Amino acid sequence: MEWFWAIGFAVAMLLWSGIYLIRKLLRFGPPAKKLATQLEALNAANAKVPEIAKALSALGDDSAIHIARRQQLLREARERKRQRERRLRSRDF
Questions:
Q1: Which one, 10, 22, 23, 91, has least CB within 10 Å?
Q2: What global pTM score does this model have?
Q3: Alpha carbon of 90 to those of 50, 77, 85, 86: distances in Å?
């Protein structure tokens, strides 16, 4: 007789835990979908990495050239800024 009660109790606990887990999965469905869309976006971004690397390699493999070009552009930008400041200071208001 005890076996029937034990088996009944075990089956009831399994049913209750199954229903509980299904309810939890249904509740956490939207965050899981959001995570899936974020993972898809990340995979799409990772797929573009070879294209970016290819575009950078088209510029040349020597990083010193890129550094020198950047420094030259910065110098030119600073010079343009100085000229603009001189023009603004020389104005009569």
A1: 91
A2: 0.33
A3: 51, 20, 9, 6
Separation between Cα atoms, residue 35 and residue 28, nearest integer Å: 11
Task: Please give the pLDDT value at position 47.
Answer: 80
| Residue 25 domain boundaries | 1-47
Residues 40 and 80 reside in one and the same domain: no
**6 occurs within a structural domain:** yes
pLDDT tens-place string over residues 12-54 = 999 999 889 888 877 777 777 788 888 888 888 878 777 777 7
Residue 21 inside a domain? The answer is: yes
Residue with tokens 């469905």: 29
Q: Is 19 inside a domain boundary?
A: yes
